[in-house]
Amino acid sequence: MSIGNNDWFKAEGSATYSDTASERSRISPNALNNDSYQFTGKLSNGDNARFILWEIDGSYIDTQRNTQGAGDFISRTGNGYVDIYLWKGLALRLNAQHEANQISNRNDTFSQVREFNSLGAGLTYRQSPNRSITLTANKSDSDISDDDGETFVGLDVAWALSPRTQVALSYGRRFYGNSASANIGYNSKYFRTSFTYSEDVTNTSRLIANPENLGVFVCPITSTALFDCFQPNSLTYTPNADEQLVEITTQNLEFDDNIILRKSSNFQAGYDFSRVTLAFSWRYALDDYLDLNRQRRTYSFGSNLAYRLGNNTHITGSINYANITGRGSISTVQGESDNWNASLGFERKIGENISTKFEANYRKQEGDLNSGGGLFGNNFAERRVSASIIYKYE
Which of 52, 61, 231, 283 is surrounded by the fewest CB atoms within 10 Å? Predict the structure, then answer.
């Protein structure tokens, strides 16, 4: 939702609710049953501002974990800055930061609020609305004694190298130490890439409810098949009501709901020309469990191909690989696992609402990492062939 007079100020806000649930089975004791409420808001100067630019944003997330003894996971953030122009593109920057994470309804040490605040001042050089560099000196106020009263450098870069290429970089400090983020995008007529690096305090329910989407492909609401999708014509494309941004990678999550500090990288590339649509992805994630002596590292890559034999006939193929390594103080979370998944398919539309599909899948997992006590253990291979007739009722 957006409100406000664009000449003097702008206001945006959103409220979302998500219900994340999974079933507990005989071979997998983990199950999710959580409700999440998220509120975000932003206030900023309007288009008429010339000598003073400002922005305030914040968020509040409450994940109610219904597992006995888990406690509710509550996070809140707030950031603000004021740029006061001194001479041409040079401005004095004043900024503030707030972050807090807490597990309520628990009596252990993690139930305490982990709060981090900072105040800073510095300089901003702004060449245009989409080209700016900010350098600040900041002082922290933290619940963690090692970070309290520390002075640190903050850097923010938002620079459009061209109408087709955008770069956004950020460096600073949070309650766990130095932090960074990055967002780099490139778009041309037939080729599009996007890369992000982020650091977040989160859990599985939040990652499922709010998957990262880089917007490399846009698909109709009724389909996520690659041959039905297209690449947007700009880096800031907003989907229409009958469209959706589609995530072409998988997160490879573990179905527990512990609180983690996730440092993750995500790269996606897409090519769409003539009869061929190709997608490539690479992901890396390092999960530090904040209330356990445990760490989980995942890196993966994948590719998807769609080839149009005709207006109604398509061949599809995909191959995905993930390597997962676990470290911790207990043996059940230690080990390594290699996972392969490949598919080859053929689909043909027969008339307006009927289509046929044939698909062959191969999946292989090997290693000594306990992946949840699956029916076939930690080492297995699976082959599957399927045929289907699909009717779309309108």
Answer: 52
Can you read off the two tokens belonging to residue 35? Answer: 């409700």
If one counts every other C-beta atom within 10 angstroms of the C-beta of residue 311, the result is 7
Domain coordinates in residue numbering, the chain: 243-394
pTM of the complete model? 0.89
The first and second tokens of residue 149, run together, are 């009263």
C-beta of residue 160 within 8 angstroms of C-beta of residue 166: yes
What is the rounded CA–CA span in Å between residue 151 and residue 91?
21
279 beta partners: 270, 304
46 alpha carbon, distance to own chain's centre:
29
Beta partners for residue 281, in sequence order: 268, 302
**What are 323-346's pLDDT values in tens digits?**
999 998 888 788 999 999 999 999
57: DSSP letter: E
User: 143: closest CA among 111, 97, 112?
Assistant: 112
Three-state secondary structure call for residue 78 = strand
**Residue 116 tokens, joined:** 């981090």
Q: Which two tokens stand for residue 221?
A: 């609401």
Q: What is the rounded distance in angstroms from the CA atom of residue 90 to the CA atom of residue 151?
A: 23
Label residue 40 exposed, middle or buried (CB < 10 Å: 0-12, 13-18, 19+). Answer: middle
CB-hemisphere CA count at 13 Å for 236?
6
In angstroms, the CA 140 to CA 157 distance is 21
